[in-house]
Amino acid sequence: MGAMTSRTARTTRDGTTLTVGFDLDMTLIDSRPGIHACYVALSERTGTHVDADLAVTRLGPPLEQELAHWFPATEVAATAELYREMYPTYAIAATPALPGARAAVDAVRAAGGRAIVVTAKYEPNAKLHIEHLGIAADAVVGNLWAERKAQALHEYGASVYVGDHTGDVRGARTAGALSVAVATGPCDADELRAAGADVVLDDLSQFPAWLAAHVAVGPAADLA
Questions:
Q1: Distance of alpha carbon 167 from its chain centroid, rounded?
Q2: DSSP-assigned letter for residue 29
Q3: Alpha-carbon span 210 to 207, nearest angstrom
Q4: Helix H or strand E segment including 123
Q5: What is the DSSP letter of 41?
Q6: pLDDT beneath 70, residues of the chain
Q7: Per DSSP, which regions of 12-67 are E strands?
Q8: What pTM was computed for the model?
Q9: Given this model, what pLDDT does residue 224 score?
Q10: Whole-number Å distance between alpha carbons of 115 and 211
């Protein structure tokens, strides 16, 4: 994705570059319209009913987990492959950025940090969303859910992970990163706090102000 700017990189107290990870679905993007359209098309293609209205209320976990509600176990893998092939046609243009998404990513980069996207979504489709919406992420890593997100967070040295699901909170905690949760997805603020989120925001429009305070005070203060 876009290269880092030439400004001096912000470093944390251990001397590493500030890196903030973001989830994608219902954190940076409102993927419900696109996913709904893709499920409707999938139902038409396969002849198997998928309740798209219900499916979009429980976004977050891997696609196969949702498909298992509608297709026999022996068909889930092949159906997931078909869905992913259909996805760019039905879901990319139909999916908007959530309020504050671009500004949140830009705030990280303005602070001299790196902004990465770590998502359970199929990586090529995740990259299509980021490119289509012009979100200036420094890297996009897909196919990781919940605790497995810690793999990418460790690899990139992320000290903060922002997500909307309790699975995102678990990923942040597993990576030893600060968990910043936004109540824009299927999990409400109380659920996110109960799961162990360090910070809960209404949405990403509140993130730049939080980040400014976080950078000014230092990471250790958030965990004190």
A1: 11
A2: B
A3: 5
A4: helix 123-133
A5: H
A6: 1-16, 218-224
A7: 19-22
A8: 0.90
A9: 40
A10: 12
